[in-house]
Design a protein that fits this description.
The complex is a heterodimer of chains A (115) and B (116). Chain A is mostly beta strands. Chain A is 0% helix and 63% strand. Chain A has no helices and 11 strands. Chain B is built from no helices and 11 strands. Classes of the chains: A mainly beta (115), B mainly beta (116). Chains A and B meet through strand 4, strand 5, strand 9 and strand 10 of A and strand 5, strand 9 and strand 10 of B.
Chain lengths: 115, 116
């Protein structure tokens, strides 16, 4: 079963607009990561935020994390056609015994940026 | 180029057959993760190895098995193949042995398996 669910499933915007994707997860985590996947290709790591962090920036990316709501958001500012891809959140799963070493991916958001 | 190599890139086989997918991790990475990506199931975590030992198990079927060799390359064996096993199989590597350290995963380009 999926640990994380992204919302929306698909998003279409114009170049220059901002894109926001949300991720909700079910269990306690140590950290949350965001990955990007171009169609049929391998995933590429974008950014990692730890459970004791609330916000992180990297270039045009801004990630927030709300552990009380078990949710995260990824904001891509000033989007470009080249940002067209699927975006996934990934969480490591904690159990009562500690880290499970399972990195579980969400369902993904398909972003289309129209030129 | 992530530095992770997966072979073969494409594989077409028949139901009931057995295939082996191979993964060479990035130089220096000790952990290997295997994922299955299909349209209906999304990206499913299968199994993780660290320095030759199994560390975590996910939704891996009993018909599937994996191992990591002393040279750190890994193989995923899929047997008694069914139509539903058709998917993209990804290998990813990282230096850390566990997710608690939060290391990013470096993904290969995947092996696309088609079962007819």
């Amino acid at each position: 079963s999926q640990q994380g669910e992204e919302d929306p499933q698909a998003l279409s915007i114009q170049e220059g607009e901002n894109a926001t994707m949300n991720c909700s997860y079910k269990t306690s985590i140590n950290n949350l990561q965001w990955y990007r996947q171009n169609s049929g290709r391998g995933l590429v790591h974008l950014i990692l935020i730890r459970s004791n962090e609330r916000e992180k920036h990297s270039g045009r990316l801004r990630v927030t994390l709300d552990t009380s709501k078990k949710s995260s958001s990824l904001l891509i500012t000033a989007s470009r056609a080249a940002d067209t891809a699927s975006y996934f959140c990934a969480t490591d799963v904690l159990s009562y015994g500690g880290a499970t070493n399972k990195l579980i991916f969400g369902t993904g958001t398909l972003l289309a940026v129209q030129p | 180029d992530s530095g992770v190599t997966q072979t073969p890139k494409h594989l077409i086989t028949a139901t009931g057959q057995r295939v082996t997918l191979r993964c060479s991790p990035r130089s220096g990475d000790l952990s290997v993760y295997w994922y299955q990506q299909s349209l209906d199931q999304g990206l499913q975590f299968l199994i993780q190895y660290y320095n030759g030992e199994e560390r975590a198990k996910g939704n891996i079927l009993e018909r599937f098995s994996a191992q990591q060799f002393p040279d750190l390359h890994s193989e995923l064996n899929l047997s008694s193949l069914e139509l539903g096993d058709s998917a993209l199989y990804f290998c990813a590597s990282t230096r850390q042995g566990g997710t608690i350290l939060g290391g990013e995963l470096f993904f290969g380009e995947g092996s696309r398996l088609t079962v007819l």
